[in-house]
Write a sequence for this structure.
């Protein structure tokens, strides 16, 4: 089985995020990192490989992004991916969610994976839907927010590839869903505890194969990507109505802190 | 003229409140741009004519009903794509939750449409609809404008108010859809499993909520003792992170895929304040947060924030409240 893991470079959590007023896009300068949620997807791929229920021949990290995004791929490889694919093209900048999902699907298509894994959300975009977009383009079943993944026997109707039994929390409680591979699965952060990369793997990451692909190389129709190929335009950024900021207590002397909390609650007749 | 199509989720014979909000919103906004709002439902025999007809009360003109699996997104994408192809709706609107996000995104791929999620407000501008969504941890609002034949709007949970505007029952039309092969390769095994005890938190005046900062399941004892100190009408609530980890029952979860609450006091300890949690408790009258990270997002929407270690503060607070109550 071959697994593709979609990863993304995001601004470091400690960096204050803002919109660049001149481009109307997120200001992506400053420290960047692998989207922390993606480490759970890589770990899930590693656990499938190590679990032994199915032979995983290859784990490929795939990203779309500017040149700097190779660092996210290096990180993904240090966490266990065997090689990586970097879709990098000026044409793709400014793509909306649907266009990004289309472009990623094209990059994945040329890899023909049996399973595509993603993290539950990107740390910067606050969006948890890219998996569903990618899946529809790849014509694969998909499920998001999966917190338990077990390999099961293939269905008689689809011999060869195994299936997956997935659990996730939805609107009314926990659902268990059986999915026939090939499939696209986004995993929730409760699925596993990602390992730390060993020093050896960090050092070796840059030596693992990395293919850089342009949009045309993976067969992307340039009319479907970038600002012109995107069907939604986001702009007119403005601040929400200001909300009076709350009171903050730094806990130094806990007895005093607690007395202040109790007084605050008392004033509001909450005790 | 622009018609709106809304997906209405149901479970055990009842429609989802957020979906009904989306129908209300769809009907109001469609009227603004000279159109009408229709609904799509997908499921089995519990989708009776009578039940579907009730969507008329929220402003639906017609209900397109398809027989198909429940609780899965891709079959609904197939149905909505067909209805839109046949009837030419200009916008698709979803209430908050989880399925709506998956269906909306799949539909965007299928119909090559723009999609905006976490929308908190929709308004008409001339003959088009524009959607607003908060971004960057709710510090900015971004405005979405659509191009092409279809715009997809996925609401944030509780964003769309329930309004009973119509009186007549909606007309029900059955649609026959050949599901895509990939839509039938996911099958529901069990749905809506309630993990953990069946606790009741919705009636409580005071909620003390715990998150991953409690460290482990035993950490919830601190919260239970604190709740005990507050006394009657106080309950313990939780984040998804700790419910997924099995530390606390699902019935106590607040947020996007849990409960929405608005108690007199919401006291959070070891909770970061993710948007998906915030949406379930932001209407609380008073919000107090204890978190050791001064940059935790929860402080952005707390009335009183305490930067410190909950393990030090919560036990002392419990004692102080007990003492204050003289018990
Ligand atoms: C589609 C979707 C739906 C979701 N639905 C929900 C939902 O319904 N409800 C929900 O809650 N979440 C939901 N989430 C998850 C949400 O994004 C967050 O991951 C989750 O709310 C985080 O929970 P938490 O605050 O307990 O954990 P964390 O984010 O890990 O925060 C733990 C906090 O504890 C603090 N802390 C640690 N130790 C201490 C200490 N000793 N003293 C004081 N503070 C300490 C830390 O500083 C940190 O801020 C959803 C996510 C997605 C993508």
């Amino acid at each position: 089985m071959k697994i593709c893991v979609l990863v993304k470079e995001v601004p470091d959590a400690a960096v204050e995020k803002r919109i660049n007023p001149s481009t109307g896009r997120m200001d992506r300068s400053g420290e960047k990192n692998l989207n922390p949620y993606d480490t759970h997807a890589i770990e899930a791929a590693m656990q499938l490989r190590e679990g032994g229920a199915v032979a995983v021949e290859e784990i490929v990290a795939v990203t779309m992004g500017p040149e700097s995004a190779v660092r996210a791929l290096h990180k993904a490889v240090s966490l266990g991916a065997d090689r990586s694919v970097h879709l990098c093209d000026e044409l793709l900048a400014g793509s909306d969610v649907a266009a990004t999902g289309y472009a990623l699907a094209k990059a994945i298509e040329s890899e023909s994976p049996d399973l595509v894994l993603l993290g539950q959300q990107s740390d910067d975009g606050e969006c948890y839907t890219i998996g569903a977009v990618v899946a529809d383009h790849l014509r694969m079943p998909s499920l998001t927010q999966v917190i338990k993944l077990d390999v099961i026997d293939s269905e008689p109707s689809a011999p060869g590839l195994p299936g997956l039994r997935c659990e996730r929390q939805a609107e009314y409680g926990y659902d268990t869903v059986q999915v026939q591979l090939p499939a696209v699965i986004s995993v929730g952060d409760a699925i596993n505890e990602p390992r730390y990369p060993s020093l050896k793997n960090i050092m070796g990451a840059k030596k693992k194969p990395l293919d850089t692909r342009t949009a045309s190389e993976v067969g992307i129709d340039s009319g479907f990507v970038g600002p012109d190929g995107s069907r939604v335009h986001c702009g007119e950024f403005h601040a929400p109505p200001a909300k009076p900021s709350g009171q903050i207590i730094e806990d130094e002397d806990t007895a005093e802190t607690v007395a202040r909390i109790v007084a605050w609650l008392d004033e509001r007749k909450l005790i | 003229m622009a018609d709106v199509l809304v997906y209405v989720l149901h479970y055990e014979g009842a429609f989802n409140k957020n979906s009904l909000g989306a129908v209300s919103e769809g009907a109001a906004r469609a009227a603004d741009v000279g159109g009408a709002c229709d609904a799509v439902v997908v499921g089995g025999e519990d989708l009776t004519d009578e039940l579907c007809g009730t969507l008329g009360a929220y402003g639906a003109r017609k209900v397109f009903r398809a027989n198909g699996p429940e609780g899965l997104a891709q079959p609904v994408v197939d149905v909505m794509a067909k209805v839109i192809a046949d009837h030419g709706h200009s916008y698709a609107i979803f209430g908050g939750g989880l399925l709506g996000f998956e269906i909306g995104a799949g539909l965007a791929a299928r119909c090559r449409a723009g999609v905006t999620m976490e929308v908190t407000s929709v308004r008409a501008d001339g003959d088009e609809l524009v959607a607003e969504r908060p971004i960057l941890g709710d510090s900015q609002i971004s405005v979405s404008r659509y191009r092409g034949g279809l715009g997809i709007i996925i609401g944030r949970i509780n964003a769309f108010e329930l309004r009973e505007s119509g009186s007549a029952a909606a007309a029900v039309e059955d649609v026959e859809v050949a599901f895509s092969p990939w839509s039938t390769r996911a099958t529901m095994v069990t749905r809506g499993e309630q993990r953990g005890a069946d606790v009741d938190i919705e009636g409580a005046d005071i909620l003390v909520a715990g998150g991953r900062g409690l460290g482990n399941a035993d950490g919830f004892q601190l919260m239970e003792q604190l709740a005990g100190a507050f006394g009657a009408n106080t309950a313990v609530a939780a984040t998804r992170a700790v419910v997924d980890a099995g530390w606390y029952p699902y019935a106590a979860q607040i947020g996007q895929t849990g409960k929405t609450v608005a108690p007199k006091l919401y006291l959070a300890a070891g909770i970061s304040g993710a948007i998906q949690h915030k949406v379930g408790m932001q209407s609380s009258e008073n919000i107090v947060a204890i978190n050791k990270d001064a940059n935790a997002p929860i402080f952005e929407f707390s009335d009183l924030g305490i930067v410190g270690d909950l393990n030090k503060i919560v036990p002392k607070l419990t004692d102080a409240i007990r003492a204050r109550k003289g018990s």
Remarks:
- The mean pLDDT of chain A is 93.
- The CA atoms of residues 248 and 261 of chain A lie 10 Å apart.
